[in-house]
Amino acid sequence: MSSYEEEPLSHPEVRDLDVRLSVASFVATAALLTFSFMVVVRDAWSIPSLSIAIALMAGLAAAAQLIGALQLTLAPSRRWFTACFLLCIPLYMLTVGLTAWMFATLYTRTMMPHLMP
Amino acid sequence: MFVHLQGSWNPIYGRLSLHEIPFKTQIIQGAFFFVVLTALAVLTAITYYKKWRYLWEEWLTSLDHKKIGVMYIVLGLVMLFRGFIDAVMIRSQQVMAIGPHSAGYLGALHGYLPPYHFDQIYSSHGTIMILFAITPILTGLMAIMVPLQIGARDLAFPYLNALTFYLTAAGAALVMVSLFVGDFSHAGWVGLIPLTELPYSPDVGTDYWMWAVQLSGIGSTLSSVNLIATIIKMRAPGMGWNEVPIFTWTALSTSVIGVTAFPVLSAALFMLAADRYLGTHFFTASFGGDLMFYTDLFWIWGHPEVYFVVLPAFGIISEVIPTFSEKALFGYTSMAVAALAIAGLSWMVWLHHFFTMGAGPGVNLFYGAATMLVGVPTGVKAFNWALTLYRGRLRFDAPMLWCLGAYALLLIGGLSGIMLAMPAVDYSVHNSAFLIAHFHSFMLLITFAAIAGYQFWFPKVFGFYLDDGAGRKAFWFFSAGTLAVFGSLYALGFMGMTRRLDYIPFVQWRPPLIAAEVGIFFYCVASYYLVRQLYVGLRDRKTRPAGADPWATTRSLEWLTWSPVPAYNYPVLPVVHGRDEWAWRREHEYVDRVPDHYFDIVMPKNTSVPLLLGALSFGLGFGLVWRIWWLCAVTIAGILLVVIIRSFDNHTEHTLSAALVAKLDGGEGGLPDAPGSVNPYPSPMPVPFFAKTGAVSRCADRVASTLREGVVAPGPLGKGARR
Amino acid sequence: MSGQEAIREQGLWDRKDVHHDKIGTHTLGFWLYMLSDSMVYAALFGASVVLGHRMNAAGGPMGATVLHPLSAYWETLLLLASGLAYGLALQGLKRGRKALVLAWMTVAFLLGAGFAALSVHTLLALIARGITPERSGYLSADLALIVYHALHIGLGLVWFLVMMVQVAVFGFHPNVVYRLLNLKLFWFFQSFVWVLVFSFTYLRGVLI
Predict the structure, then answer these.
(1) What superfamily in CATH does domain C21-207 come from?
(2) Is C28 close to A57, i.e. CB distance below 8 A?
(3) Do B348 and A94 touch (CB under 8 A)?
(4) What percentage of chain C has pLDDT greater than the value 70?
(5) Is B435 in contact with B429 (CB distance < 8 Å)?
(6) Share of residues in chain B with pLDDT > 70 (%)
(7) How far apart are CA B715 and CA B699, in angstroms?
(8) Any idea where the domains of chain C sit in the sequence?
């Protein structure tokens, strides 16, 4: 293992860098976001469908960034990175989701409903 | 852009002026003289014994995880003292201010504290005890023990470790400064919103609280990062996840909480800061802000924070009970899983801190049920301890007693917690003394366990025993105190007393409050015995040196190395063969084996950069509190500059040659090959981590300087001789 | 396994002289730090959800009057291109070619600086129109998310400069290599966050 100190470029994390993945993620993300940008600017569909489209494109583009750019893959040198991120996903959902849920119920009980969107 | 402020401000001093120093309050005067005299005494003592250089070189600039851990614990103890004084003041005020005709002293209408001052005291009590006393003590224990338990030479990032300590210390320093320059927050340790907003708290108290908590929170996040990286990447050869000692498991799950929950607190405080400094409307009561959102964010951190401090306590108990039951921990796997499950569940229970907010019944039901679910892994732990004790050969040394006390408190606090988890019950006891008693049961559990950990590992770290008798007396008095204080508070809760009262309306509440005062007296006696325990230990240190295994029945890896632990922890990293490596070696009679080969060891050099960054962070915090913008600009630029300059230093490590390590470890150039060779030099480690007590040769002095500087200084430095 | 066998197989003390993997430890540690930072982003996204209702705008501007999907779209492309350029710079690192690394890092820096300039311009334009975070909780939440991201970009640009100097001065020293890998994590993570900011704050935001 000490050889990485002398030969840092032989470290698996350097060797596993893959420019094709960067290019692919760039193309995919740009294409997906362009699509959602276009449909929103042209007001192509109804607002609920647009929301779903945006969320879907965002999810795919985010996945492209995570897998392609950040290289969260199952390669041995990347496993811990992937695992740590996957373990955080429930926390994002809890933080945002449960918060949204509790405030939704709070607002309907305490605020003026006609002010809600 | 910056909000309009009431009161004066000038570009040089910001809001700071001489009026801000509370000359006139007699209690603060007393505290001030006490602090000044203590500080003078300490400084004089350091100067008289010519220990400045020693302090600087061996402690303040050290990157040794054991020394940083000890500094964490010392910081925690100092703050614990302050928090304890706050607690005494709160209860004494309450016991004096009972009924409409109770007398007032020192300018107060009732009791001896005016409400404004009283509010600051309970706020600082909570903030200090949770964030600046318990957290540093546990972080210190983890920083010391985790690398030893997994067979590493240090934490993954020794420099970061020092930095996190100094960030915590900077936060603590801000809290202490607030006592004498300006005020502290009067909005509780949770920062009751919208009281913390600028229109309702235009003074600097909230700012002190906010930036102190912010600094220590960033410190905790980073120290958690450090611990996780250490545990994942630096385990000794042979140590798979099934062999990780249980305290390390709890340290891991605690750190997971630390990495994920503390940033949410940071976010909440940044938003609050934006409200107070930039005039945004995150939490304001007007202009579309939502004040409950602060409460929400605070408890998204706040509840995991409870488990952040309780999990290491569980880990300590899980280490101490097997040792003094003389058998392996029952249910290792379920213990590890339970620790992780508690960390996971801690993320979906936070609303139980504000069931009364008015969210829908479905929401309250969900959080109530999730809260009760936490009882399952906690119960697993409790049963596993019971089954470890069952048919064990129990020895009641002081650490064991403290752990059993913690165990009892877990049952009391856990059961009252299950009661509070029911929204319907919570509505009637919300913010009552019952709640206070409940969470103090847990905080005291943690305190008991932390004291157990301190007494358990002290001989390992320092190489001599603490006095067991005094430790046990301390335990009994401390337990009596806990019973009296928190038994009374449970009762008061049922009698209807709410928290944070500076004046008690009903005379019927007086007897339990008096009982609580008696409990405080017992705590004082217990503190005396704790000090005495340390004093006797120090006095008799030469006659009672601790071997590698001071309790004779310890189990995990850390007991394998010398006591006190050498700077590099293990001369050669041990290979792990079983879950309880040291017990395994004892069973197979490999206890007296020493390495027959040595390697060069790479160690981090000492550096004063973390101390400098801590000082700059303190300056930044102070500048922000008083809105001294030039100071903020200078310190931010300074921090960036220092970080960048440090990143250009590629010579932050130095190497100890294998020959030197061999010499330090007892023999010149190692011993004959073949496993099984016995060390013919069974002398204690010549370079103790706790320097220069007792028999240290001149050689060791030279070596110590080698460890420090990275070069072999010729001749003795003569430090050992002065004593 | 009996004790003797275990000893025979592995020995009691490490024989391979395992130095810990410095590069891998540093990148993992930094990734953990990035994840902790992501929780701040999560809280900010939570804020924009909770404070995203009409009543949170307090009668002030909202949605399409505040946000410009077009300029944000150009920002998106700039940031993604900057990430791509840095990916190419890392390809240079893999091949051990200093000049390639420096050249692509310069490109990545310039594209990132373009992003920063555009977002500063957008924010200043908003302030000029009186649309400031002080106006309402809604604006506080949305702008906080954007500003927090922009601060990261700013710090990242400083980091780029420092790393370019370090690559030029030290070459591929292990410290430089792990910092380049960390910068990769940092920079791409900001792209990842921007994808979400662009989609949910800008695109979803104008629908309200």
Answers:
(1) Cytochrome c oxidase, subunit III, four-helix bundle (1.20.120.80)
(2) no
(3) yes
(4) 94
(5) yes
(6) 92
(7) 8
(8) 21-207
